[in-house]
Design a protein that fits this description.
The chain is of the alpha/beta class and 164 residues long. It contains six helices and five strands, in the order αβαβαβαβαβα. Its EC number is 2.3.1.51. Pathway: Lipid metabolism.
């Protein structure tokens, strides 16, 4: 949930989230979440396809789309999980740039263990836009996905090193 709140504070352009439908069940937060997001049931192929159609309509209306490409959060001690293809396919199909954003402190501030976490700074880094003009899915989706992930992973490693 902190990713969502940090996005709202960081990005000033109008955008809509693509998010997992389970979060809509959280009291109060869920009320606003389901009214501002394109909800996806990650277990349903049909739902995942419907997300693309809904996202395309929103893009055509001038909104940006925010997708967290990890597709979930691992409870394991992984700095950054592998990315799924969806955000990159959408960007290439519409020839719109990818904007990698690093959230450095979310797991430390709000971890999975109820009595852990700590108050403190929540650092955000908005990286340079990655253009998709002229790219095709066949040749560039995997490369774009890996480039985005490496930018964020490298920044997380810098933040981790600086905080210790």
């Amino acid at each position: 949930m902190t990713d969502i709140m940090l996005m709202l504070v960081t990005v000033k352009n109008p955008f809509v989230f693509v998010g997992k439908k389970e979060l809509a069940k959280i009291p109060l937060f869920g009320f606003f979440y389901k009214r501002t997001c394109i909800l996806v049931d990650r277990d349903s192929l049909r739902s995942r396809h419907a997300v693309f159609e809904s996202a395309e309509r929103r893009l055509k209306s001038g909104l940006s789309i925010c997708i967290f490409p990890e597709g979930g959060v691992s409870e394991e001690d992984i700095l950054l999980d592998q990315f799924k293809d969806g955000a990159f396919r959408l960007a290439i199909n519409h020839q719109i740039p990818i904007v990698p954003i690093t959230f450095a402190d979310n797991k430390e501030r709000f971890s999975f263990d109820f009595f852990s976490g700590s108050p403190g700074q929540m650092r955000v880094r908005v990286h340079e836009f990655l253009p998709t003009a002229g790219m095709t899915l066949k040749d560039n989706c995997k490369a774009l996905k890996e480039k985005s992930r490496n930018i964020i992973l490298n920044q997380l490693e810098v933040y981790k090193w600086k905080s210790h």
